[in-house]
Give the backbone structure.
Amino acid sequence: MAPYDAGSPVQAPETDFRDVLAHLASGVAIVACWDGDAPRGLLVSSITGLSVAPPRFLFCVRKEAGCHDALLARPDLSVALLGAADEDEALRFASGSRAHERFDPARWRLRRPTPPVFAGGVARAVCRVDAVVDAGSHSIFIVEAEHVGFSPAPALVAWNRGLTAVG
């Protein structure tokens, strides 16, 4: 990638911008909902706090993700901010080949009508979808936390296409 010249903006190729985004450290979370009778979920690294009053998160979901349409169809979902001890759970939700390992009742509370809720993590929230914004290849979900739980521990973050603990 060519060095940035402040005098003339340069449009970087898409692969270069992916490298830039890979070096943006971010917390990781599992977002889950019901899809008919089946629990569905995915790992997101685009989650951020939006406001305290009201208590809101926002996160982005690629429109091609298998869970995208289920999230659009549901007014409620859960968000689990993952801790260092949750790396294996993160990998389950990051890999389509491990989808059959997700939502083990030993690790998940699966009681309808509440969305599936992860028993681990640094924090858990049951949320209502406030808005969905079309952002090209992704949808931005803005959700309001209705119920929260917090268990202080070192966080799990995504950085440089991998997961690492901090704190």
